[in-house]
Amino acid sequence: MKIDIDQDYHRRKKAAQRIAFVIFRSAAFINGIALFIILYFMVANGWQAISWEFLTRPPVDSMTRGGILPCIIGTFALSFGAIIAALPIGIASAIYLNEYATQGRAIRIIRLGVTSLAGVPSVVFGLFGLAFFVVILKMGVSIMAGALTLGVMSLPVIIGATEEALKAVPNTFREASLGLGATKWQTIWRIVLPAALPGILTGSILGLSRAAGETAPIMFTGAVFFTPKLPQSLFDEVMALPYHIYVLATAGTNIEETRHLQYGTALVLIALVLGMNVIAIFYRSRLRRRLTG
Amino acid sequence: MKKTATTRNLTERWMRLFFFLVALTSLTALFLITVFLIKEGLPIFKTVSVREFIFGQYWYPTSDPPDFGIFPLIVASLLVTLFSGLIAVPLGIMTAIYIAEMASARVSEIVKPMVELLAALPSVVIGFFGMVLVAPFLQRVFGVPTGLNMFNASLMLAFMSIPTICSISEDAIHSVPAALKEASIALGASHLQTLVRVILPAAISGISTAVILGLSRAIGETMVVLMVAGGAAMIPRSLFDPVRPMPASIAAEMAEAPLGSEHYYALFATGIVLFIMTLSFNIIADYLSHKYRRVGEASL
Hints:
The complex is a heterodimer.
Chain A: H1 2-46, H2 52-56, E1 59-60, E2 65-66, H3 69-100, H4 105-119, H5 122-136, H6 143-167, H7 171-179, H8 184-213, H9 216-219, H10 241-251, H11 259-292
Antiparallel strand pairs in A: 1-2
Helix pairs in contact in A: 1-11, 3-6, 3-8, 4-6, 5-6, 6-8, 7-8, 8-11, 10-11
Chain B: H1 2-23, H2 25-41, H3 50-55, E1 59-60, E2 67-68, H4 71-102, H5 105-120, H6 123-142, H7 150-174, H8 178-186, H9 191-202, H10 204-220, H11 223-228, H12 246-253, H13 262-291
């Protein structure tokens, strides 16, 4: 009799587990499906718009025809500017946090600062960039102001990635170098940083892709609705891919008629951003294999 | 010999100071953000009181006389965040469980990058997708007057916060000591029982951090709510009513608000409210992840 109960209990236990695991698995697949649906519709509707002309010509006829060259250039200028500004500061911050800092209140506060900065809404970065870079520092709506705003926003991403790369460098490397009489800075510069470089690079690619895809921080600081000329200096305003999509989709002269341009621009942006991410992810998994294997 | 040693020590000390100062940049940036939001936001309170601003029912910043009440915007932000959380929290945690506990190494090599790519999609693309594809679909299926509404916005936001919730939860589940799991299995518990009664309770602090950071991402997300929430500054009566969350209002109106006008100040003040909300989310998350961090196996 007792054995019967046990078997029944075991059967129910197994059934419950099977059902629960099916649910977990479906949850994981919903993400994949969502990603697939978004990509599918963007590619299916966007690829016809892509042509050599689309990529190399400026928009014409109040943005109802023509290409997106100024937006591509603008997005490159803004995101590379952001990374150039944020990378040295981000790497140095991570070096301090990971190599120099000891446990304590100061570190706790700096770390809290980094995570809080990561949590600041993108539109608030936009407000800050407008009030500080555009107005107070008198940069105007420009590549400079937009790139610096994006740079501040990318800082936590770069710090996080660099810290992870530094943590992955085995402690024996450091001990060996210090044991040979090298100073801490010599150890960091000649041993730790070279070993962490690939990881840092991966992190900066991710930071770059995030900066390229952001819209809200550049709406008031760097990007404009339309500008006929390509930027000549850092203090020129630019068009940018994400903002162009938003403008065409919500405020264009003829929203329905320019739909193919909107899909096309979105597809270019997706290709750019996801391309960078795929490179980073591949590179990182190869790195991990090398470190563990 | 002695001299070089002193120089070396000196360089060391300078380097340390240099890196410390650079590390303060993030804090400085956070400080500057606070200062400028306050500087540009406070002047609105010469015109309306804090109470009228936060609990005022009407947001008509461009009418004459203007109304600066952001209560509908706050409610909209909280509601889209809540509804997106109802979708994203279970999905995100279950995906994390799948990756951390069930999937083979090979499958998780595929599923994990997929979640990361979902996170990498630019918000404007998700907004665009919600606008041109999901909105007409909702309109047809539910027979609602507009597909640009709170439900659509919550759905899109959910898929933006899932990656955050999933990856942090997964880390938390991974860091539960294997010995706990082994002990539970050895006592005859099934994998599911182990998961529910041992692993998840042990990982709860990490998972709550994940949930809060995910919600924080949803409440601050701008482009999605700007493009798909519908934009009506009123308190919604149904899930399918259009709303105007705070970030949408700021992003949409900043371009029209003349520098130094009341409207401009009001938008910065809205930014302050938003900033305070996300900042407190982050501080709570930080507190939780430190307070309930279980060290080793002995603490269970």
